[in-house]
Amino acid sequence: MTATPGTSRIGDPPAALHVEALTVSYQDVRALDNVTVRILPSRICGLVGVNGSGKSTLFKSLMGLLQPDSGSVRLFGCDNLTARRQGFVSYVPQAEDVDWDFPVSVEDVVLMGRYRHMGATRRPSEHDRHAVGAALARVGLSDLRRRQIGELSGGQRKRAFVARSIAQDAPLLLLDEPFAGVDRTSEATMVALLKELRDEGKTVLVSTHDLAGIPQLCNEAILLHNRVLAHGEPAEVLTHENLAQAFGQPAVREDS
Amino acid sequence: MELLNWIVEPLQYGFLTRALAVTLAAAVVSAVLSCWLILMGWSLMGDAVSHAVLPGVALAYIVGIPFSIGAFVFGAGAVALIGAVKSTSKLKPDTVIGVVFTALFAAGLAIVSSTPSQIDLMHILFGNVLGVTDGELWQVLLLGLLTLTILLLKRKDLTLLAFDRTHAHVLGLNTRFLSALLLGLLALSVVVGLQAVGIILVVAMLITPGATAFLLTRSFDRMLIVAVGITVAAAIAGIYASYYLDISTGAAVVLAQSVAFTAVYLLAPPNGLLFQHLRRRARTPGPGADTAVAIPEGS
Q1: B74/chain A closest Cα distance in angstroms
Q2: Handedness of CA A59, A60, A64, A66 (dihedral sign)
Q3: In total, how many domains does chain B have?
Q4: Which of B166, B170, B181 is the best residue to mutate to test the A interface, defined by the most A CB atoms within 10 Å of its own CB?
Q5: Looking at beta carbons, which residues of chain B come within 8 Å of A90?
Q6: Is residue B16 very low, low, confident or very high in pLDDT (cuts 50, 70, 90)?
C-alpha cells in the first residue's frame, strides 16, 4: 500500500503539480487560456515564454495568489491551501521583487523557511537552527550568514533564497528567473544545486530566458504563450517552429 | 547638586510627571510600530489614520465616552474605507488615502465647529499632555501595553509580511489577517499618541524613530532597540526643553526626534552624508573596507 493521502486515482502516480484547464483573466486580458500541465515528482521543468506570456500568472496560480476563472490546481494531490499549510510549496522570488535594503541577515532569511515548523511566536528550536546551518552550508553561504541580505552578490542572493527552500524542506520549488543578473560561475553552481535537489526527489519549476541552458538543466520544458504551445523533452519543445510561434518572428527582428 | 536639582525640579509637579509618563508610553509604542510601518511603505497610512480620528474624538466628547473609543473606531474605519475604495477602483493607493483622510478630517472640524465650546480644538490637534488626568494616563498605559505586547509576540510574522509577503502566503500564513492586525495596531498607537502630541504631530512619532533607526542598523531586532532608545531620549529631552524653554511639549518632543534624525542622516557611519563625502574624496580602497561597505548592486 503506497497510496498517498489525497491521491486522485489508484495506480496513478500523484503528480507533484497538476494544473487542469486553468483559465485566468485580468479584467479584459486573458493571461492563461485553458492551461493543462502535469509534472511528476523529481523532475526539473523549464518554463519558457515571452514577457506577458503568462509565466508569472502561472506561478501565482500555483501559489494560490490568484482566483482563476475556471480550472483547478492540485499539488501532490492536495488543494492549494492544504499544500501550502503542509509546507509543500517554496518560492524563490525575482530579484526586483525583493527589498534588498531590508534589515535582515542571510541567516534570518533562511530561518523564514522554517516558520511552519515553529510555534506561534516563531522561536527557533535547536532543530530549526541545525536545518538553517545545513542549508547555508549546502549553498556555500555559511561564511556570509551574518551579512545583511543586500550585501551579497546577485548569485549569492539567489542561493540564499534557495537555502530558504532547502531549510523549509519543501518538495516543490518554484524559481522565477533565477539566472537573471547572475554570472556564469554562479549559474553553474545553481544548476548543479538544483540537479542535486531533483535527485533527492524535489520537483523544480523554473522560469527562464536562458534557452541555451535548458537542455543541460531540465528534464522537460513548457513553452507558454497564454496557452501551452508545447510540453515535453527540451529537444522536442525548443524547435525552431515552436520558438517562432512563442517569440513571434526570429528573435533578431529590429522593429518593435 | 545643581544638575540634580535641575533634573528633579520639574518632577515635583504631578502634571509634569504624568506628562512624562504619557509621552514616554506613546513614544515607545509608536517607535516600535514605526519600524514596521516604514518597511511596509505605510508612512502615509499613519498620517491618514491620525487625521481621520478627529471626528471620533469630537463625537466621543459630545457623547461623553472615553475619547480613545471614538478615536479607535474612526481610525479603524478609515483604514477599512481606504481598503474598500482601493480594491473597487483603479485609483492609486496614495490618492485614495488622500481623499479619505481629508474627508474625515474635514468632517471632524465641522463637528467641532458646530458644537458649543466644551471641546478645545487646539488640544485635540496639538495635544494637551500637561492637562492629562489620571484616568487618561491609565487609558494610555493600558492601550500602550496591549499594543506593545501584540507587536512583540507577532514580530516575526509581521517582519516576514513586510519583507516577503509572497513567502508568508506560500507558507499558508494568513497575510490579510496580518495586514489587518498591523493596521489595527496602527489605529491603537495613534490613540495612544494623541494625548501626547496631538493629531497633527502623532505621525512624526510613527515615522521618525523607525526612519532614524533604519539608517543606523542592518538587523531588525537592533532596529527596534535603537528606535526605542532614540525615542525615549527624545521624549525626555523634549519634556525638559518644554519646561525650561517654555515651548509646546508636543512640538518639543517631535523636534528632539527630528534633531536625532538629522544628526544620524548627516553624521552617522557608514552611510551618513559626511561619510559618503569622505569616501568620495578618499577613493583609495584601504584595509578594513570589507565589512561596513555595501557591495555595489550587481543586477
Answers
A1: 30
A2: negative
A3: 1
A4: B170
A5: 170
A6: confident
Contact residues on chain A for B210, CB-CB shorter than 8 A: none
DSSP H/E element including A34: strand A29-39
Instruction: Note the pLDDT tens digit of each residue in A29-88.
Output: 899 999 999 999 999 999 999 888 999 999 999 999 998 999 999 999 999 999 999 999
In a domain, B218, yes or no: yes
Task: Kindly report the backbone phi and psi dihedral angles of residue A15, in degrees, each rounded to the nearest multiple of 5, phi listed first.
Answer: -70, 145
Instruction: Sort out which chain B residues have CB atoms less than 8 A from A116's CB and list them.
Output: 171-172
List pLDDT tens digits, range A100-139. Answer: 999 999 999 999 999 988 988 899 999 999 999 999 999 9
Cell, residue B107: 468632517
* AA identity, residue A174: L
Looking up residue B20, the CATH number of its domain turns out to be 1.10.3470.10
Residue B76 lies in domain? 2-281
CB-based contact A105 B295, cutoff 8 Å: no
What is the reported pTM?
Answer: 0.87
Residue B160 lies in a domain: yes
Half-sphere exposure of B263 (CA within 13 A, CB side): 10
Does residue B296 sit within a domain?
no
* ipTM for this model: 0.89
Residue B225 clears pLDDT 70, i.e. is over it = yes
**Cell numbers at B95, concatenated:** 490618492
Q: Is B288 part of a structural domain of the chain?
A: no
Is A115's CB within 8 Å of B171's CB?
yes
